[in-house]
Amino acid sequence: MLGRILVVDDEEDIREALEMILALEGYDVRTVDCGAAAIAQAEEEHFDLVITDLKMPGMDGVETLMALKQRHPCLQVIVATGYASSETARRCLSEGAHDYLKKPFDMEELLRLVERAIADGRVPPDGPSAQRC
Prior knowledge:
Layout: E1 4-8, H1 12-24, E2 28-32, H2 35-44, E3 49-53, H3 61-71, E4 76-81, H4 86-94, E5 99-102, H5 107-122
């Protein structure tokens, strides 16, 4: 297993497509349809990476990102959106997102980002007082 990934998207087709693509690459994938479910799932299971949609009913992707990072500071998160802007990209990255991805996905780019995010999450941060992930 290459890593455990949680996909958060309110669109079932996108969840299913990402689950299939990532599972075929060797990842263990779970999916949920909203931010609140993502937080609950992350409390139940360990994940190396969360890929979350930005625009969702209830908690949006930024709120989901912030809640996940508050509870699991070392968790890697990629925010994906069909409504990309430099402002939302900056906000996501400033809140701790590993990366920001525009929909529709380029699958090769997605897989590169996933691989890099999981690898980066496994490298302990530098410094004697750094928290180990």
